[in-house]
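INFO batch 0412 | record 1 of 1 | parsing
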Amino acid sequence: MTRITGISVCVLFCALIIRERNKTVSALLTVGGIICLLGETAGEIARIVKHVENITESIDGTGGYIRLMLKVLAITLLTQTVSDICRDNGENALAGVTEFSSKVIVVSLILPLFETVISIVGGIIK
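INFO prediction complete | emitting tokens
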């Protein structure tokens, strides 16, 4: 945790100092810092995915649903990061469209799950 905090604080201070002189370099520095932070957390992400896979193996028929939930989670986290970068660089409209687009993608991914839930509920009501 201290490495992540250290990277974040260093990138923040450097970006703030550089932003006054060159916004493009500041934005690139921020993206580079994000990549470093993701590299630091890659091991933990892999551990989480492996743990979830172990859980899904023990429960029959849920693997597809768990993978779907992980995809949706990854999409939302990535979209939030990208839209925050856009907003930090004064591109509010781009950030909004990015968020809207990700919501459309998430809805398209969960439609089969929604259909399954509706058919189960319909079977119970009959």
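INFO post-check: The chain has a mean pLDDT of 87.
INFO record closed
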